[in-house]
Design a protein that fits this description.
Elements lengths: L2 H9 L2 H9 L4 E10 L8 E8 L4 E6 L5 E5 L18 H14 L6 E11 L2 E10 L3 E8 L4 E9 H13 L1
C-alpha cells in the first residue's frame, strides 16, 4: 500500500466531501499511520489531520472501519501548521528502509508495530517514526521523504523511558 491509496480513499468518501464543503479553507497538515504486525490482534490505522484557519481548529479524519471526524486539542502555544503538498511514499519502502538501518546497527529485535507521523516544514515532507520492537525496545526514526533517507535513528528501551519519567517526577 502507499500513501496515495489512502489519500484517494479519503477523498472519495462522502465524509471528506461534506467536511471540505463545510470547511473550504481546511488543509491537510499531518497524517498518522499505524502498521501493526500482530497477525491476530493487529489493527492498522490511518488518520488525516486538517487545520481549519478560519476557526483555528484541528480535525482528524480517521479511516478505520467507519470513517469519523475527531477534533484534536491544540495547545495554547499554537504552532503554525503547514500544508502537506506532493508527499508520496510507499509503506513497504519505509519499512524496508527502517529494517535495513536496524540490521546495519546490529539490532536483532523483531518489529512489532510502526507508528508514522507525516509532516511538512518549510515545504519539505518528512516522517517521524516510532518503531516498537521485541523485548520492550523502541526505535525513533526521522526520514526525509525527498531523498528517502534516514536523518536520525536512535534505539531506546522501555526501561530507559521509565528512568526519564521517574527523574521528572522527583524534581
Amino acid at each position: 500500500m502507499n500513501f496515495q491509496f489512502y489519500l484517494e480513499k479519503l477523498q472519495a468518501s462522502d465524509v471528506y466531501k461534506n467536511f471540505m464543503k463545510e470547511n473550504p479553507g481546511a488543509f491537510l497538515c499531518s497524517c498518522f499511520f499505524v502498521i501493526d504486525f500482530d497477525k491476530e490482534k493487529g489493527k492498522n490505522q490511518q488518520h488525516f489531520d486538517f487545520f481549519i484557519p478560519d476557526t483555528k481548529k484541528l480535525m482528524s479524519l480517521q479511516l478505520e472501519e467507519e470513517m469519523q471526524i475527531v477534533p484534536i486539542d491544540i495547545p495554547d502555544k499554537t504552532e503554525i501548521f503547514e500544508e502537506i503538498k506532493e508527499c508520496g511514499f510507499d509503506f513497504k519502502e519505509i519499512e524496508d528502509l527502517i529494517v535495513k538501518e536496524k540490521d546495519k546497527e546490529g539490532i536483532k529485535n523483531k518489529i512489532q508495530k510502526i507508528l508514522l507521523s507525516l509532516q511538512s516544514k518549510q515545504g519539505k515532507c518528512f516522517i517521524l517514526a516510532t518503531v516498537f520492537i521485541s523485548n520492550l525496545g523502541i526505535i525513533k526514526v526521522n526520514i526525509n521523504l525527498k531523498n528517502m533517507e534516514i536523518t536520525d535513528f536512535e534505539k531506546k528501551s522501555f526501561l530507559d523511558m521509565i528512568k526519564v519519567f521517574g527523574k521528572k517526577k522527583e524534581v
